[in-house]
Amino acid sequence: MIRQQTIHRTIATAAVAALGLLTLGAVSTPADAGTAKVGTITVTGSGSTSVQRDRATTSLSVSVLASTAKDAMAQASSTYTTLRNAILGVGVKAADLTTSGVSLAPEYDYPAPSGSPVLRGYRATIGVSVVSDITTAAAVLDTAVTAGGDAVQIGGVSLDVADPTAVAGTARTKAVADAKQRAADYAKALGERVGRATKVVETASGIPTPIFYGATRLGVAAADAITIDPGTQKVTASVSVTFELLG
């Protein structure tokens, strides 16, 4: 009798243990098998934004012809000093002025092919590059013509964006959003869902590049008021993003 009770208890214990294993197995099985990763998808997204150009780099020079090299250099230096002080007077900082070149050379007239070159004098030239905002650049041009007179030459104006980093960041954000939407479209067509991003590679970034206007485009004349139209610059970004695909 005792042996029979022992057998019954052993069977009951085994049954309870088996039930426990089944219960544990049910708990360890994912509640939603559809969250399983079934693969990856890589897409390219692009984004762009436009920004108004707000910085100008103005190229100016003083050029003087005199009978001697010494006089040419002295006159050019004096006119350059006058020009420089006038530019500083319209709000340009000294740190934003850069001497871009100094030259001195003889200049000749060339008569008929059979004649010999005739020395006209010596040409002294001093160049300067001025960085400023767009409004100040217009004042720089007007001031340069007034202060330097006929000795001043305007090489042109280059326009760009002072802080392209923030603008590029906006374009990148739009590019990532575009990539997410593309991935979602493809996943839907495949009957899957998009998971987390596992890899992001920037494939292209279009930082604003300077646009150059020559003196003839600016229509510079001593009696004219100079107007500079900055226009806008389109900034683009392109990224390649790899996403998980969930079944």
Can you walk through the features of this model?
It is built from 5 helices and 8 strands. The protein is an alpha+beta fold. A 5-stranded antiparallel sheet has the order 3-4-2-5-7. A 3-stranded antiparallel sheet has the order 1-8-6. Strand 3 (97-109) and strand 4 form a beta hairpin. The longest helix has 27 residues, at 2-28. Mean pLDDT is 82; it is low at 1-33 and 216-223.
Summed up, what is this model?
By secondary structure, the chain is α+β, with helices and mostly antiparallel strands. It has helices at residues 2-28, 69-89, 134-148, 164-190, 215-218, and strands at 37-52, 55-66, 97-109, 118-133, 152-160, 193-206, 211-213, 232-246.
Q: Which bin fits the share of residues in helices?
A: 25-40%
Give average pLDDT, whole number: 82
Oligomeric form: single chain
Provide a count of the helices. Answer: 5
Give the spatial strand order of the biggest sheet.
3-4-2-5-7
How much strand?
35-45%
Structural class: alpha+beta
Described by the principal axes of the CA atoms, the overall outline is elongated
CATH architecture of the largest domain: 2-Layer Sandwich
Low-confidence stretches: 1-33, 216-223
CA distance, first residue to last residue: 58 Å
Under the CATH scheme, which class of the largest domain? Answer: Alpha Beta
Radius of gyration: 38 Å
Q: Can you tell me the CATH topology of the largest domain?
A: Translation Initiation Factor IF3
Question: What is the number of beta strands?
Answer: 8
CATH superfamily of the largest domain: Protein of unknown function (DUF541), domain 1
Number of domains: 3
Characterize the largest beta sheet: strand count, sense, and whether it forms a barrel. Answer: 5 strands, antiparallel
Order of helices and strands: HEEHEEHEHEEHE
